[in-house]
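Q: Sequence in, structure out?
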Amino acid sequence: MIRYSLRSTTLKAITYDPAASERIVESTGGTVFRHAPVPYGIYRAIASSRFPEKVYRHLIRDHVLPAAVVE
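A: Exactly. Output:
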């Protein structure tokens, strides 16, 4: 798994599991969202963005339903 800490007010970190094509987002409030299937390119777009919240919202949150939400 690949984990990347984000500099964001709402997102703490993003993790990608290439074996499952699963992306995991940790919020600063402690909620964890798992989304699958998600291509690696989308993970990289969020991890490398100056505005990860906007990219996450545009590419994932509004389009891919979470596979699981862990609080």
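The CA atoms of residues 42 and 59 lie 7 Å apart.
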